[in-house]
User: Fold these one by one.
Assistant:
Number 1:
Amino acid sequence: MYVLGISAFYHDSAAALIRDGEIVAAAQEERFTRKKHDSQFPTQAVKFCLEAAHARPEEIAHVAFYDKPLLKFDRLLETYIAYAPRGFKLFLKGMPLWLRQKLHHAREMDKGLDHKYKGRYLFTKHHESHAASAFFPSPFEEAAILTLDGVGEWATATIGSGSGNKITLTDEMRFPHSLGLLYSAFTYFTGFRVNSGEYKLMGLAPYGEPVYRELIFDKLIDLKEDGSFRMDMSYFAFCYKSVMTGPKFDALFGGPPRRPESPLTKREMDIAASIQSVTEEIMLRCARHAHKLSGSRNLVMAGGVALNCVGNGRIRREGPFENIWIQPAAGDAGGALGAALFVWHQLLDNPRVPDGNDAQRGSLLGPSYSAEHTEDFLDSVGASYRRFEGEEQLLTEVAELLADERVVGHFSGRMEFGPRALGNRSIIGDARSAKMQGVMNLKIKFRESFRPFAPAVLREDAAEFFQMQPGEDSPYMLLVASVQQDKRRDSGSNGQESMGLDKLAQVRSVVPAITHVDYSARVQTVDETRHGRFYRLLQRFKEKTGCPVLINTSFNVRGEPIVCTPGDAYRCFMATNMDALVIDDFLLLKKDQAQAEQHAVDARRDIAPD
Ligand SMILES: [Fe+2]
């Protein structure tokens, strides 16, 4: 029996398909349409999911949508009335889309599914979808559940528990009080884009000092012991305007928001450090409360805030749980998967038998492409390439390129579901290289120079390099851990601590390319079961260099979705200063490409927009 889950019409549309409870395919629409955060009905993602399962639309037993549009509309109306007449402009702006599309989900989905699905549509609550996406694929028989995001219908955070094939959500925080929206307000204020720049704010935090932390606690939020809080809405404008913060907020932080593209100053860095610290405190309290309510040793998490891997790292280190599993597609895209699983387990009462591993299949749930497809494409664009028989020789050559400080686009097998690239749609490089962070940011990704890169490390070597328990997992790059003391290096600053972005220039460890300025790293532990090919490449690199760590960053340039097809990968390769491209069994070197040119580099990318 097939159940299709859909997330759409807000941001990050996606489709997910399960067959007899097993996750068979999931993908975000943006990867196909090449429009970042595409929110249209995920027509192409649905088509892909059905093709991957060799299923026809008529065979779908149930279609589940990841939230309840009428409840969301209710929230919009009530908020408008509560703030009237202030929000009239925003109300007028949003209404046409609601009347045309968002209130007619069944009709829109019928259209999207080509009128071939004849059943009823099921609508799960937004946070039920997040909670289901966190618990059902997790390796746990039972667990506490914590969901944190901007807002769904009314809920902005929930706490509950899962056991066997059921989840129960017992506590919730409601709009407008929201950790996701609070974080987004600061994202907006520091000149980044809401719903996508939150990661940048988190990356900026270690450059600053949390000097505004107490001010935030004093003025902006009233935080309770259980992690719930109320926001003083006189500082925020998102209920009645299309901006996040108001004049009172400006006054509190010494002036108006930073204009996008203007230079980052100490103020933004300190604000980033402050809101990050506040966020971690709230996350920790929520986790402790979830533990108190459930008594479980296990925690599962989802919702956009669960992508705050620094906060997740603190829950792991300082929280009461022994085990944590976080849905890799923690944002709204993952709601598609959660909705489908909710129908299968919760509504249809089908059993769930965890086998000790998670059911997310490495999150490699997207499309893959045949060698014939790739070869035809490469021939059609006149690319110069070598095709290898099997991966042995290819991986050896790629390891050599990496050891030689070459930057490699690594495309293999199925695309990842979720915002992180886990080796199959990744750009990789030597983590030991002192210049690699700058090269990757400026010459490859064309993005802000301050942004850190994440390490992929052989699982068995993770605890040697990072402060993790031996054998501890972070397969989906959702936990931050510090670089081990004995891997750190004197930064050569003669005891003088650098300020702000000057911190960037220092070599802080034996793997400087992935060591952030506070010695933290967003670790991906790589194991053979989940990410076999990438694991073997890391092994090969270790054999050659003694180092089991590579930089792993997503295969895209700033402002574009991660590549999906071999064609996308090739275009990205040619549009950047990447040295080599691997597409499954094919290897392309930039120096062999007749059309290749060096691309101009702007050295002031710390001020770039999204
Ligand atoms: Fe959400």
Number 2:
Amino acid sequence: MNENLTKELEIQTQNFTPLITEYCRFESVAAQKRMMPETANWVENLLKETGFETRQLEVAGSPNYVYGHIKGKSDFTLLLYNHYDVQPETPIELWNSSPFEVTERDGKLVARGICDNKAELISRICAIRAIQAAQGELPINIKWIIEGEEEIGSVHFDVMTRQYGDLLKADGTLWEGGGFNEKGQAALALGFRGMLYVEYSVETMKVDAHSGGAHALPSAAWRLVKALSSLKDENGRILIPGFYDDVREPTEMEKQASRDNVDLEQETRTKEMYGIDSFLHNRSGYDLELSVYEPTANIAGFLSGYTEPGVKTVLPAKAMAKMDFRLVPNQRPDDILEKLQAHLKAQGFDDVQVKKLGNGDPVVTPIEGPFVQRMIQICQAFTDQEPEVMPLVGGTLPLLGAMKNNVGVLGISTSGNPAYYGSGAHAPNEHIRVRDIPRAIQFNVFMFTELGTL
Ligand SMILES: [Zn+2]
């Protein structure tokens, strides 16, 4: 790295904290539609001040998307994605400082939304500004899409990509990313599981009854418990007929990546974090890594009857549960919903209503593709060690299906966000470590520069 760039990097690293402080003051809680236009305007202005041509993309019922485009030296166009919305700050009493005021404590910057995902946007901005100050033009073209609904499931992303898909075409795409892992490796996530989120409800009577009548009156709680237990066996196998029809085997390269990612120390840390002695079905090592290729049925919540302290002898008329199915390639959420409904009917649970609350396709960028291979090289060159490649991550990015289906663009996630495994996304006292900031900015500078040498 030349002297000029090193100097500009230092300057931009100094600028990081004031910028992130300003950004985090916007209480951009999507679930409560707080300060969304103000935040979008601030982000648009930040891009504009960085030399981007900008506009806000309007979609009915959605906070505006911020879009920016800047030309660079080479023909390569990189699409960046970030989101300006954050999770609600509740429970507020668990915060040690005001959630929307960046507070430095023990080498950490604490604020709602800082790791998820405001700090990544600022480190990308700082990297771009450092290159511009040192070299003038950027090495590549950059397009940037920043949404305000990620934390509520990117509900309008599909519509947005149908309306504005042409703006988003690119040679490579980077979704929001994480930091470097504890071994200092860069991390690449190539795919995410899909999801079907449903709400079940049962109503067996018009009103709750005295439980003295339990010998004669139907319990909604028991109905729902029975219906749910028909979905899964003791070994975790999901019993819906046809559920596994479209599941594809992991490829040889994916299996190899799972083998490379075995980390027994990390397993111990995770078990300690949750206070458990073993993982489900005693899984460990390669077996545990590979199990991400299995779909799941998770009860996210269950509500029925009397749940407050003490005794109330009631027979509940209503019961409700929420469930997320994490889906793997090539399962499709609507197909699974149909199969779920058919299963409940066949088992005699006609009275159990199923309502879809959300969905997302599983999307995987092939490991052997040119952009992925180039990014692996870049990560290796930057860290001097092989990156951690995760072909499939357990969670879901609902926007990926929309990008794949409507724009024809896949993408990956990588390091470059000054976050770490303990950042506490969505939790009270969400934070980043101050010491991770310079490296995140340096990585982005290095990556933008290297992509320009293709
Ligand atoms: Zn989040």
